[in-house]
Design a protein that fits this description.
102 residues, alpha+beta, four-stranded antiparallel beta sheet, 4 strands
Length: 102
């Protein structure tokens, strides 16, 4: 059976959306390598594997799991081609240079 990232033997195929808050004597090195999302209610908001949950809790943090998201292919409609991405960047740079923001 394949396992998720982290030291724990847990099945792969799911990422957990969670918030992390310091507990007792937290080790900041345990947070390296997590996929960080925009903050949620003042807490660190992340996507992590089940194994990473175990590692972070063991390192002295409190983890609140909010949702489980299956790992799968990215929806092709969300992927920009290079020309579209460059046009978006060029537009943003032009807006900054002209002093307008959007």
């Amino acid at each position: 059976m394949s396992t998720a990232a982290g030291s724990s033997d847990t099945p792969a195929g799911v990422r957990l959306e969670a918030t992390i808050r310091p507990g007792t004597s937290p080790d900041p090195d345990a947070l390296k390598g997590l996929d960080v999302l925009p903050p949620l209610d003042g807490a660190l908001h992340v996507l992590m594997s089940p194994g990473q949950v175990v590692d972070v809790v063991t390192a002295g943090y409190e983890v609140l799991v909010l949702a489980a998201h299956p790992i799968g292919p990215l929806d092709p409609s969300l992927i920009m081609d290079d020309a579209t991405a460059q046009a978006w960047i060029d537009d943003k740079v032009a807006q900054i240079r002209s002093g307008r923001r959007s």
